[in-house]
Amino acid sequence: MKRAGRTEAQIIGILQGIKRGSEGPISAPCMQAKHSGMPVSEAKRLKAREDENAKQKNLLAEQILAEQVLGMTALKHLLSKCLVRPAIEGFRG
User: What gap in Å lies between CA 35 and CA 38, rounded to an integer?
Assistant: First the structure.
């Protein structure tokens, strides 16, 4: 998901401005739901955790894909030996 390009401090500043009535009307329900009432340090910590989780999800997906490819390759190799060898022996026979 593409981010708006704002830092946590900017988002919290916007939300505090909305509460005071000094900010213009913006449609930011997702910002309000995620960051309302949160200090900047906690928002930064939350973003760091989200980034780390995203990295770990990508690593897990890559590992699962690699295991599936390896399994398919091993199965293909096993099947080729099982199917080709008896055919050759039957031909010589």
Answer: 5
